[in-house]
Each structure stands twice: as structure tokens, then as C-alpha cells.
Amino acid sequence: MTETEFRLNGRVVRGQMADYATLAAYLRDNLGHFEVKAGCGEGVCGACTVLLDGEPLASCLLLARQAEGCTVETVAAAADGLRQALAEAFVRWEAAQCGYCTPGMLLTAYAYVKGGGSFDSPSIRRALAGNLCRCTGYQHIIDAIAEVVSTWPAEG
Amino acid sequence: MYPLPFVYKKAQSIAEAVAWAGDDSRFLAGGQSLLPMLNLQLASVGLLIDVNAIAELAAIGEDRAALSVGALTRHDTLARHATVRRASPLLAEAASLVGNPRVRRRGTLGGSVAQADPAAELVTALLALDAEIDVVSPDGRQRYTVPSLMLGPLLTVLRSQELVVGVRVPHREPAEGQAFVEVARREGDFALVAVAARLWIRSGRVARAAIAVGGAAEMPIRLADLEAWLKGQKAGAPLWDAAGERVSDEVRAVGDPFAGAAYRTHLSRVLVCRALAQAERARGAS
Ligand SMILES: Cc1cc2nc3c(=O)[nH]c(=O)nc-3n(C[C@H](O)[C@H](O)[C@H](O)COP(=O)(O)OP(=O)(O)OC[C@H]3O[C@@H](n4cnc5c(N)ncnc54)[C@H](O)[C@@H]3O)c2cc1C
Ligand code: FES
Ligand code: FES
What we know:
Bound molecules: flavin-adenine dinucleotide, FE2/S2 (inorganic) cluster
Order of helices and strands of chain B: EHEHEEEHHHHHHEEHEEEEEEEHHH
Strand order of the largest sheet of chain A: 2-1-5-3-4
Shape of chain A: globular
Strand order of the largest sheet of chain B: 4-5-10-6-7
Oligomer: heterodimer
Helix content of chain A: 25-40%
Number of helices of chain A: 5
CATH topology of the largest domain in chain A: Ubiquitin-like (UB roll)
Number of strands of chain B: 14
Strand content of chain A: 15-25%
CATH class of the largest domain in chain A: Alpha Beta
Number of strands of chain A: 5
């Protein structure tokens, strides 16, 4: 156990973390952030995606202690305009069924749009290559993201 | 999902990382191969030495002879870095095909070398590039090549105290064209077969060729017989086709549940042909 501190969704988190706890396990089991989904545990599915200093990473392949001094964001971070636009587009396009992949999809899409990603389908598919959806099918997810890219930023 | 307990320590220098290392320790770089194994409890470790804070491990530079790339260079950086793209386009292309975007943001060149996956794009690329791999241990510095380092699937000569610090790759020469191609089941998957090719053409004839195939056999292999056969022959599509036909003699493909040996042999043939054609076109391009 070692005292570790990082920022989570705008708040400072400080706590005793087991050296061997992954960030995914710590966020869920110690902090109750169940919007971070537990999937494969091997980096394949993307359900556990968080933004670490703005970059989408698999929280199952990071140790909680590696987040020391970093900024961690989950899908429950306070909604800015882009988060809101993506969430609304996902609803409009029915881009979620069971919703298990959705937090990872939204965070990956958020970083993609913020990073200036283009709205063509091959680029979006490539960006989403590490996020598996086992029920909606990908087309509506891609359509929702493409719509947001093509209208973002809404104004100046 | 929890790994079996271990102690985690973050090293600030190469000397510190190497000094802490012992029989029951492992280095932690990108964690994109090690953490899956720990999470699934396929591996366990007493001490995990995080090398991510060691800035000198992430440097990219060049001198007259070679490009040098630090072990901590992320796949994504390798794929986009202007110096790498110019000096070694094959290496940059290989890095862009590793895993999914999250893996490329985090995974490292040194980790890929130490992991020694039979289908690893970067190991296949380094083999074709005749790269040198620099390793530091309590006994000092050592230099390896892919063949002297890799013993088999997921197996290298590296002991737990040996830290890969960087890789040296010769600059692409003006007469040299490079290509890296692969076939994977889906974007983000490991390659079923990957081929790295370098081709020197002078006065319309092949002056030299270097071809490595990953994913097909127990470890990435160089097609030395084919390289020798190509030498002196007239460059062009008929030669690349004929080269592809000769591949099966040299690639001892092995099957797994995703693809049988016969299909992997077929892919090797097709991809060698494709890589040579692409390398021919890439000559002189920067
Ligand atoms: C979903 C997924 C898909 C993937 N797809 C591919 C793919 O298509 N192709 C591919 O090649 N790889 C793939 N990978 C693996 C990825 O490339 C890893 O990044 C790489 O194999 C290991 O690099 P790392 O920095 O993550 O190493 P780590 O996971 O940190 O370490 C791996 C091993 O190397 C050792 N090690 C790490 N750094 C050093 C060093 N500097 N010196 C000595 N030993 C060291 C560790 O102790 C450990 O034993 C994939 C991974 C995932 C999760
Ligand atoms: S649970 Fe982390 S990628 Fe699947
Ligand atoms: S909505 Fe069910 S997994 Fe994607």
C-alpha cells in the first residue's frame, strides 16, 4: 500500500493503493466508478478506456500507482459541449444497445474529435479499432461520431 | 481482475533500474504485453520496476551511420516521428500497424523487442534492417542483433537484469526502397503474416535485397536464400512474382487456431511479392 494522488474528473483523489491494483480495479472497487467497465483485462475490448492526461488508454493495463500526478477522466466527467454533443448524437443514432461498450466508445470518440480527427468513415473506424461492441454493430456508432465531427466546433 | 501481489517501484535512471533488478523482478515499460499476462495470472513477479520515468530511454537521434531510437519510444511516436519516417520508413510503417490505437500510444519499442512475439511487427522490421540492440546490465553494455537476441517464441537471451536501452538502425540509402506489409484478421489484431523488405536496384538489376517474414514461423525469419537468388536479376513484376513462388521453400510456417500452416505459407508468398513491388516503387522516395 502506498499513498498516491491523482485528479479524477476534476477532483483530487488521494488514497492508499495496493502496488498491484490496476487503475481499472481501483476506480471500480475502491472508488465505485462503475462507469469504467471491466471487460477482457488484456487490452483488447476497450470497455475500461479512460483518458489519462487526455489520451484514451486501457485502465486495465495501467497500475493505479502509475496515475500518480496525472489527470484521469471517465465518461462521468463533467459534460463540456463536445461530451454533450457526442452523448446526444449516440442517443439520436441509437448507437448503444446494452451500453457496455459505450463509455469506452464515447471517450475514444471524444479524444478523436478533440484531436482534429476527420469525419470520413475509414479514419473513424481506425480510431475505434480497439473498442469492441458486441450488440449495436458499429455503423450507428460511426454515423454518430461522423455527425459530430462534421458539425464540430458548433460555432467559433 | 487482480494480478498476484507484487511490489512496484519507479526507477529514475537506467543505473537505478538495473541495480534494483534481480531474479524475481521485471521491467515495466508500456505494460501492453506484461499486464495482460499478470492480469490473467499467466505470469507473476515479485518486483515490478517501472522504467517510464527514465527520460534518456525515450530519446530519438541520429549520427552519420545510423538512427538511434530509445527503448521507451512509443509505437505511435515511432510511426509519426519525422526523423524516423525519413531515415527508416519501414520501421515507421511497421509501428503504425501494431495493435490498436491505445496499444500504440503506450507500448514501446524496447518492450516489443524483449517480448519477442513471433508476429511482432517491430521485431520483423528490425530483423530486415540489420538493427543493433543495446542492452545495459550490471556487467556493462552489450550489443545484440535480432538473431543473437531471440531464441524462440516469447523467448530471448535477456536475463532479468538486462535492460534494453535502445536500437540502432542504419539510414536508408539513396538506392534503397523499403516496404512493410501485413495481413491481420481485423484492424488492431496481431498480423497473421507480416513482411519487411529492402531492395537496392542499380542499372535495372537487384543489387541487394533484405527480406524478413514475421508471424509465419516460430519467430521472425530472414529469407537468406531468396535474397541471394534475387541478386543480379532484372528488377520488375515478373521477378517479384517468381520470388513469391520460391518463398514456401524457406518459410517453415506453423499453424494456430486462427490460421493453418498452408494459409500462412500462402500469405507469405503473396506478401513477399507485394512487399518487393512496393519497395521497388519506394526507391528514392523520402
Ligand atoms: C490488444 C493488443 C494488441 C496488440 N497487438 C500487437 C500487434 O499487432 N503487434 C505487436 O507486435 N504487438 C502487439 N501488442 C503488444 C504490444 O506491441 C506491446 O506494446 C509490446 O509487445 C510490449 O511493449 P510494452 O512496452 O508494452 O512492454 P511491457 O508490456 O511493459 O513488457 C513486456 C516484456 O518486456 C519486458 N521489457 C519491457 N521493456 C523492457 C526493456 N526496456 N528492457 C528489457 N525488458 C523489457 C518486460 O519485463 C516484459 O517481460 C498488442 C497488445 C495488446 C494489448
Ligand atoms: S477490460 Fe481493459 S481493454 Fe478490455
Ligand atoms: S452496445 Fe452492447 S456492447 Fe456495444
